[in-house]
Amino acid sequence: MPILVTSRALLRPWTMEDLDAAARICADPEVMRLYETGQPWSRERTQEMIAQRIEHEREHGFSLWAAALQDTGEIIGHCGLIDCPDSGEIEISYALAREHWGKGLATELARATLDHGLRVLGLGRIAAAVYPENAASIRVLEKIGMHFERTFEQYGVELRMYVVERDQC
């Protein structure tokens, strides 16, 4: 059951049937280079992530959802919202399989997620943590209306925090 539908993709809750596709994406060093700790994930770590996302959805009513192409159902990554205890923020996060980079899908999915968070869930503020060298992700965040707020340290590296507040939209 889709949570959000865009012109080309949809976001829906994860299921364990998504493990093969997710494990392929999370094992790609280029995809994971600028995500969390910067290291590819094992199949076991990916399975744990899916279980965590399912539980987060159950507890909070939102999560990082599986991103799939509408026409084929192919899992292409994830996008959604997560309650981050490290930063104390509700953060938007996304990652796509490398073959789907540069097609505007991250912006399309992130824009729909941001709108859902602010307008449907009624969140007052949404943040995003990004590596300073991740120019493509910074462009996505700026395109969807987020702005730079501060730098901070997480996972032992310096990250940039982008934010948007409901009254800014």
Account of the 3D structure:
The protein is an alpha+beta fold. A hairpin with a 4-residue loop joins strand 4 (75-84) and strand 5. It is built from five helices and eight strands. The strands form two sheets. A five-stranded antiparallel sheet has the order 1-2-3-4-5, with helices on both faces. Strands 6-8-7 form a three-stranded antiparallel sheet. It has one domain (4-126): Aminopeptidase (3-Layer(aba) Sandwich). The mean pLDDT is 93. Helix 1 packs across helix 3 and helix 4 packs across helix 5.
Global morphology? globular
Q: What would you report as the Rg, rounded to the nearest angstrom?
A: 15 Å
Number of helices: 5
Helix content: 25-40%
CATH class: Alpha Beta
**Ends: how far apart?**
28 Å
CATH architecture label: 3-Layer(aba) Sandwich
Estimate the strand proportion.
25-35%
- Report on the biggest sheet: 5 strands, antiparallel
Strand order of the largest sheet: 1-2-3-4-5
Features of the shown structure:
169 residues, Aminopeptidase, five-stranded antiparallel sheet, three-stranded antiparallel sheet, 5 helices, 8 strands, globular
Put the structure in a nutshell:
Helix content is 33%, strand content 31%.
Show the helix and strand layout.
Layout: E1 4-5, E2 9-12, H1 19-26, H2 29-32, H3 43-60, E3 64-69, E4 75-84, E5 89-96, H4 105-120, E6 125-130, H5 135-143, E7 147-154, E8 157-165
Antiparallel strand pairs: 1-2, 2-3, 3-4, 4-5, 6-8, 7-8
Helix pairs in contact: 1-3, 4-5
